[in-house]
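Internal QA ticket QA-208
Title: Verify multi-chain structure generation after dependency bump
Assignee: T.L.

Test input:
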Amino acid sequence: MEYPFDKIEKKWQKIWKDKRIFNADNNSAKPKYYILSMFPYPSGALHMGHVSNYSIGDAITRYKLTQGYNVMQPMGYDAFGMPAENFAIQHNSHPKITTEENIDIMRKQFDMIGFGLDWEREVSTCRPDYYKWGQWFFKKMYENGLVYKKSSFVNWCDECQTVLANEQVEGGTCWRCESTVRQKELEQWFFRITKYADELLDFSGLTDWPERVKIMQTNWIGKSFGTNIHFKLEGKDDVITVFTTRPDTIFGCTFMALPPEHPLVSRWLKDEPKDSEFTKFCDKVINEDKISRSAEDTTKEGIFSGRFAINPVNGEKVQIWITNYVLMDYGTGAVMAVPAHDQRDFEFARKYDIPIKIVIQNPEKSLILEEMTEAYIEPGILVNSKQFNDMESVASKKAISTWMDENGMGEDTITYRLRDWGVSRQRYWGNPIPIIHCDKCGEVLVPDEELPVMLPDNVELGKTTQNPLLSVNDWVNTTCPNCGAPARRETDTMDTFVDSSWYFARYADAHNAEMPFTKKAADHWLPVDQYIGGIEHAVMHLMYARFFHKFMRDIGMVSCDEPFARLLTQGMVTKDGAKMSKSKGNVVDPQYIVDRYGADTVRVFMLFASPPDKDSEWSDEGVKGAFRFLNRVWRIFEDKLDIIKQNVILSDPVVTDRIEGSKNESISSSLKDLRFSTHHLIKKVREDIEERMHFNTAIAAIMEHLNKVYITETENLNDTEKAIFAESCAVIPRLLYFFAPHISEELWKMIGNVELVHEAGIPEYNPKFLVKDEVTYVVQVMGKLRGKLEVPIDLPQEEIKKLALEIENVQKFIEGKTVQKIIVVPKKLVSIVAK
RNA sequence: GCGAAAGUGGUGGAAUUGGUAGACGCGCUGGAUUUAGGAUCCAGUGGGAGAGAUCCUGUAGGGGUUCGAGUCCCCUCUUUCGCACCA
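Actual output:
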């Protein structure tokens, strides 16, 4: 017989809803706890990844609720973006309709699993009451000098007349029409995130973030200290500034490397014939896939520009080459090449027969140019460097850069790998950028009272490939808010990362029509105490959100410095070792599993499968195991209901006294062990959740305890033993509640409780029952296990050593050897060193 | 390529601070119960040797530190995530 999960789950979901236990109160006197899982894209159905992710959040939610916190666990939808636009085209509908339909389905599925979500705070980024404030933030950023326009390269398909996302470019061709993709220069809007680079590098407020996320962000920002050095063009007034972290190698510069996008190169190209080798090479490199260009394994290619620059430190002529391995986005977009001491430059110089000059000698002074097979990048002693000869290279950096600064050749500078955030998207299904272009006034912000700039509904999707907004004439054509002359709306929409950069704050005051949220509400809830999401967001989303939060702080909207106090990056759900995806055909539908085994089973399985930050492998058999476990829990309550019911009123002093044994009834050793197990379990589950969030081991501990309960004989127990047995059962729903809340509520009620499980609070363990009077020592000889020792817990070390040496098997292994040392680790082991 | 992680039985995983490797679950094997069961209960289960006590071996591969290494260090291999227009 299976336990009636279906009836139970629906029943308790309704009770939780009616009692509003998950509707958070902005004015509660209780301490707040804000738990947030990254909101999903409304694809129309929950997948296992969602279930796994949100089961973690729900376990924490219920734990904190039980601890007495005023908990907020809101939910919403990251509803704008390319997938929604494509989904609508496929279904011959409109994204506004399909998205809302999908949201309704997903909300039902969330409820079917019984997540404790505060639906009164639901947000969806595609609704005007939300995106209005995204536009408002754009304006605020603009007014604060954090928004600017610049031209940059995008993937462009001539056939489709549209911009392609990187993922839409497959092997250099368009995913739709397979024509070659080229790089096109477009004017784009940018957020000046680099202004916050240094502050984003400061993780001092984020001690509870995974170290690896902080490292990835640090590397992403890539702060490096170096020197800008100015090279004059031979015979011209033009100056090329290079950035280098190795000013100590400046005397060894034999050529200069520029990317074809460099402004100077663009000028040279104008005077070049269209069919020259030079033009062709530049065109080719510009159109190369960006990722492969930054990869070090791509063949380094270049072409000599025919021009020379003058090395300011020694007046030497250096060739200027156009190459595919220098990026315009980093540093000054120009590199001084020192082939002797940089591997990429070395390979390039050898390939094109460019001179190489050693300026740093290894400590043995054995570096010979002709024998070099790779660049020497280690520190060493300067040579061929005029007055700096014989200096140690690391120390010479400062000396050389100071000298260059004094002589106007260059200066110390700091460079970041981080680039400003390009937020323009040439797509329909996104938040319109609130700008109007007027011939007379230029770009004008849409006034606050006209926000939001509504996304027009009357678009024809899928008819043209270009941004549909361009063809909505009555939307594009408007009047200038400044002078009233005819003007045109900006047709770019914002990157969806903008929408997801501040939603966590909107939940605090989700329905405010006057502003994004009040400071009071934000200060009440922020920062998010626990944020949960995939590791794939380690850099971009999490950094954009931090940036937005710091901006909101700077304009006085929030008080704290960071949006997410603690971060948990959960792993993904795999099947047959691969990520579940439709294309691989290895998707498991949560709906089916819930129908068959119930929501509690799915949750328990997902949480039990692995620790939350690791990937977890789906297993049909494993789900059955979780279901079997819940049935076992159910069965013990059915079988032993009488004995439990009569002995579980935990606040009853008589029962408590009995468990403590004050009634002077004898307690058998198996019941003593059971009592130990009960209290040990409470300690274990609490520690696993509070200190590590390892739900898998917490659930394993409950299973282990349940096994002990099962083998306990309940015939002929005295009253004390009955109370101990009842306690050992009653503790289960109180601890299982965090993972399998429905069955736990039902069992809790079944044994006579009127209150809900969380209202009983977190169980306390009694340290008295965890004290053992004997302890097992492991005895090792030369690190190998040779015996065990059961001794009284307070036996002196000398006695333990003596007993250890007496063990027969130990004797065998020290025979004929001298015992040199005996190490005793208290309460753990004895290690004998014998040679 | 760069950056970040991970690799433990047939399998998902445990071992929290350098101290009994394999908890718990799945699978498998045996037993009990049942008219029967793919249900339930109990027990066993890394590999090898042995009647057994016990011994040898074993945490991707190779080396090192240590009385002692899954855990720390170095090298190699494999897999996963991110790389700025997927979210």
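Spot checks passed. Chain A has 28 helices and 35 strands.
Status: verified.
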